[in-house]
Amino acid sequence: MNDWDDYRLILALARCGSLRSAAASLGLTHTTVSRRLATLQDARGQLFDKAPGGYRATKLGEALIGVAERMERLTLDAARQQKAVGEDLSGPITLSLPEAIAQFLLLEELLEFAETYPAITLTVETSYRFVDLDRSEADVVIRGAQEPPDHLVGRRLFPNCVTYYADRNYLARTPEEELRWIAPSAAATDPSWLAGSPYPDAPIALMIDDITARHRALVSGLGLSRGACFMADPEPTLVRLSSQPPVPQQELWVLTHPDLRQTPRIRAVMEFIINAVNAKRALILGQTREV
Known about the structure:
By secondary structure, this protein is of the alpha/beta class. It has helices spanning 4-16, 19-26, 30-44, 59-84, 99-104, 107-116, 168-173, 192-195, 211-219, 229-232, 264-279, 281-284; strands spanning 48-51, 54-57, 91-97, 120-126, 140-145, 153-167, 181-183, 204-207, 225-228, 238-240, 247-256. It has twelve helices and eleven strands. α1 (4-16) packs across α2 and α2 crosses α3 (30-44).
């Protein structure tokens, strides 16, 4: 096979297991992928067998999957090397960071970077998933992690800290026996944070996985919640519920792929972000407000 698109199809079907999922990953229709697979197998032989729950690679298919994976690695390596070329502070950068950090911590700083380096085209993508830098899903990431992938390079900063909060009007109008918690769904299986809270007997009334929506519910006075200090402490209507020091969570990292570490525009954005986060260290660690 000489067409890289054929190998991409093989990889997508091997990884996704179904025509519909493979089509979605390729940005194609189910009909197009089905037709291309039939044409490919007519020309090259049986690559996949239809099995319960999806498709299973044949011996020939497995051999070509291995070839496709090697081609993919070479293609991604070439793309990174091309992006790394250039000595001036210009060109595109994709920055991936959690939505809460973008909105509540670094929004003004990201605009400042764009104004400081107008020749750099900065694309900000928000995600809580640790995007794959090997596949060039982003050039630089900000993430909370205990152990990020070993081969990535960058800077470990300090942990994000959390503690317990409530809207002061909610506390004033709600009898203690009627207090309720707003929590992530993981709280149902790991209630340890609740046991150490100021109100361990208050039930969980609402579970919201999205941290921003949970914060909005807290600010709206819908219940008690544990929140990130950098989000909750600047809110004038919120009060801390505990005199204990905030609890450290995952360490904050600013990372890139080693192929890009010497690229001037990558170094510029990483240095800018590291300085911006360090400037807000006390806020992130929960050291800017007392109970």
